[in-house]
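Need residues for this backbone.
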């Protein structure tokens, strides 16, 4: 049972309530942030986390877990996939989303200098949008909250559309932003190949799990949902089509890539505070995105090791790539 008395955020709450919706319990709390504003929080009180306390981190409810506690919860939430696999997938294309701007031009060149050390398919550079040009995107009309950072989403959807149009069969794309860095693998590894991929996968997240050295042939996969950090994604042509159809039919609900993981077939309403996830990108509300059928959902997995990191928003402490 969730112990409300063991929570430091109570001192900064305007009010709160706990209610049952079917078999799931939710906590709704109105918290003060560091600017004195009140932020509405709504999270699921997951049974795996009921004994852990919550903190108010700038108006957002966050679990204060040790690394060992987080590892335990993550292993329970995301069991290793043991079903049928595809032994090898060759990545057809790489596409980098960037902006034609002095600052981004420098970052992009630095990233390309790093990536050239690795085995990768040819990298296509796609210049996206700025806040003043994003309205020119064909996908701008599908952004539900246009005041959010929709230029990143529109640029990503433009790349997915480009790849889906040219993809034959169900080829795969490696999408990344212009400040990614491979980590934990040697330069001899071929980043254009995936091994032992779950047979139904649409999208692979390569930035969750152990931040330790590994070989791509040893990677294992786990069902995945929720979260953010879209700096690198392996996605199939079928997956791209699902994402595009979702945006056009339902509208893009959240910031950046959040919807990608919210429409995972494995998704359920999730608490914040694990895997670096933040309710901030979802307006303080933890809600799964609803679609009409399972066929519309993405089948999302994540690697059990961190393969790509990001200089501007690292998902794990940087480690030196082995030679």
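Answer:
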């Amino acid at each position: 049972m969730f112990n409300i008395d063991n929570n430091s955020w109570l001192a900064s709450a305007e009010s709160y309530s706990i209610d049952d919706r079917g078999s799931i319990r939710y906590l709704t709390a109105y918290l003060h942030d560091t600017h004195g504003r009140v932020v509405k929080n709504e999270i699921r009180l997951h049974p795996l986390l009921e004994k852990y306390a919550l903190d108010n981190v700038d108006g957002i409810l966050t679990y204060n877990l040790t690394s060992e506690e987080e590892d335990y919860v993550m292993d329970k939430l995301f069991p290793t996939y043991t079903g049928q696999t595809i032994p090898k997938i060759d990545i057809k294309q790489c596409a980098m989303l960037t902006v034609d701007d002095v600052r981004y031009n420098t970052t992009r060149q630095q990233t390309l200098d790093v990536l050239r050390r690795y085995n990768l398919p040819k990298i296509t550079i796609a210049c996206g949008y700025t806040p003043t040009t994003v309205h020119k995107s064909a996908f701008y009309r599908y952004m539900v909250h246009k005041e959010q950072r929709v230029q990143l989403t529109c640029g990503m959807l433009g790349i997915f559309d480009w790849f889906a149009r040219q993809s034959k069969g169900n080829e795969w794309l490696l999408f990344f932003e212009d400040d990614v860095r491979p980590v934990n693998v040697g330069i001899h590894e071929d980043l254009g190949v995936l091994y032992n991929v779950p047979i139904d996968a649409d999208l692979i997240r390569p930035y969750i799990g152990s931040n330790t050295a590994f070989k791509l042939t040893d990677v294992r996969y786990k069902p995945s949902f929720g979260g953010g950090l879209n700096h690198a994604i392996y996605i199939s042509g079928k997956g791209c089509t699902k994402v595009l159809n979702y945006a056009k039919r339902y509208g893009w609900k959240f910031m950046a890539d959040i919807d990608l993981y919210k429409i995972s077939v494995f998704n359920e309403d999730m608490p914040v505070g694990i895997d670096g996830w933040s309710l901030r990108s979802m307006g303080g509300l933890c809600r799964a995105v609803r679609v009409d059928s399972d066929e519309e959902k993405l089948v999302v997995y994540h690697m059990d090791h961190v393969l790509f990191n990001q200089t501007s928003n690292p998902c794990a402490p940087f480690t030196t790539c082995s030679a």
